Amino acid sequence: MEQTLNEYLVARETVLRNPSDEAARAWWASEGYAPPAHPTVPLAMVHTIRLQWLDATDAMLADSRAFLFDHGYKAGLNIRAYTSKTRDAERARHGLAPLRGRE
Q1: How far apart are alpha carbons 32 and 49 in whole angstroms?
Q2: pTM of the model
């Protein structure tokens, strides 16, 4: 079955808004990745992506950081992860309303 862009974006947003181990594994497989080296890798990847997502709320950013630190992915945070301030600045650059304080 061929997936349309809109279907892909809806599926991606669903996983990012409410990450779970099951959803992360399904996403991992759908993207064609090889079996993960460790069981937490798919969910860690979702949390890493969420730290770079412009629609992530403050709570989502905090949740993703907590997950990654709690599971030993501290070294993996050398990405351009957003904070509330930097996310809202980037949203403003794209003409989007800020999310700070909105949950």
Answers
A1: 17
A2: 0.85
AA identity, residue 93: R
Each residue of 18-56: pLDDT tens digit?
A: 999 999 999 899 889 999 999 999 999 999 999 999 999
- Where exactly are the structural domains of the chain? 5-93
Residue 64 parent element (H or E): helix 58-70
Alpha-carbon distance values, 7 to 1, 3, 81, 93 (Å): 12, 6, 26, 27
Task: Please give the DSSP secondary-structure letter assigned to residue 84.
Answer: H
DSSP secondary structure of 20-33: -HHHHHHHHHHTTP
